[in-house]
């Protein structure tokens, strides 16, 4: 019989092997796996090695999960052949020789879990041999629900708020795994506690608040490069795709995000925003987060961000939502890369200088004026609206649009580049949905477009949310990001991509049974109207459009406009949300019609008074 001392020494060595294996497996960017089983094996191997390296957890024999993991750990320690076969089954065609060596070292470290010769004193030596994570692309299988049985342990806030790359990667991995678990929103705090989410927002807001309106990014060195990302609209897995393809922020790689992190309800907006805030805290000088048109209280509420936050955190949801809104106000408005490239969300803006009232033309604003904008103030802010909402067009000049922003032509692009001594403008704000009705501009289906080419440089629009879905319409578009490299940084290389396979959103997981039931729900939603969801007499009204310009638009309501409410108890999502949204839409339409009615009446009264005055003047002049 083996002596207890020897058994303890062997156990210690194997626990150290587990710890080492977990560190190395956790550093792998699980990226270029060609089958779901390989990814699944790696995830389980990481979980097993992490639990195996945790002595305190192993002591608690009352925990059934512990007993199961201990049993599996013994199997892995005795025979890791299947795990090694999966790891060796990766496709390495795109890796160079150095990366292949890293993978081989990682496999060797896993072999230590089942090798008696693997002693703890060899750990430090192997740790020094593998310091860089491998580059491999994740392929997340066929979208089945096999992730639902993975147990995710909640992440805790690091001591003294000192984030590490490992912590940020762990956060990203946990949130990614949660999106694939087919969970309901209320389970979210079990993965990311409210206190951790609140701490992320608070710490990031303190950093962002100290930054200038226009962040200057000074790049030097032959290996330096800057990645510019456009609208993501809450598509968390597009962000992961970008990181997997381009790499993470580092000392030699900057990231500039042009805003619109928040997407329409049912997206992963909160996950995306929190991961970006974590990177901002970790590398504040290498990650630049700009404000988009979605990052306002009005837009965020319209897009369902308040509901998304409350669905995840319940009674704590409004608190976190308010923190996020306050954080939005601290986001800078623009960046200048290498004194040559200007990036922003919307575009150019009107000068705040006094304008001659007799002149009909608008004056173009400057970078100096942008620095003076009070971006944190609540209320009307014309320059801020222009920066977030303006769009280019093909006509010359600077004109007011039909919303909050401006429309500017190629002559304004030339003037701005010349007066600012810049070469390139990279803006976002418009995707294939916005460009579908603008035949004079690029359709954005490849993720970017060249909008203006002038003597001083170029204007680009970039959009990073692939396969955008807006309402009932889906766009088979690519997302894109721009890479700026030395020596001049003025010739962006655009990388287009698509993320074909993404998990169902949390809202799709509520009240959804089998796939057959889900198909029935969507069939009812799209084909059979209100009757299919238990509403026999939906509210309605008619609006009679006037045949003559002088007539007043009248609103005719039936006596029982709200007949059919309250909604039946059996109504399920997404019908309930859609029905509630319909009433909000009806209310807004009613208000708009009433406002128009009032304006028409005021105009008619004014015209009547003017006509009477002219008649009096005419009578007086004829009597002279």
From TrEMBL:
Which Pfam families does the record cross-reference, listed alphabetically?
Answer: Metallophos (PF00149)
Which keywords does UniProt give here? Manganese, Metal-binding
One of the record's GO cellular component terms: cytosol
Supply the source organism for this entry. Brassica campestris
InterPro entries in UniProt: Calcineurin-like_PHP, Metallo-depent_PP-like, PPP_phosphatase, Ser/Thr-sp_prot-phosphatase
Upper lineage ranks? Eukaryota, Viridiplantae, Streptophyta, Embryophyta, Tracheophyta
- Kindly indicate whether the keyword Manganese belongs to this entry: yes
- One Gene Ontology molecular-function label: metal ion binding
Q: What cofactor(s) does the depicted protein rely on?
A: Mn(2+)
Name of the protein in question: Serine/threonine specific protein phosphatases domain-containing protein
Domain Serine/threonine specific protein phosphatases, by residue range, is 192-501
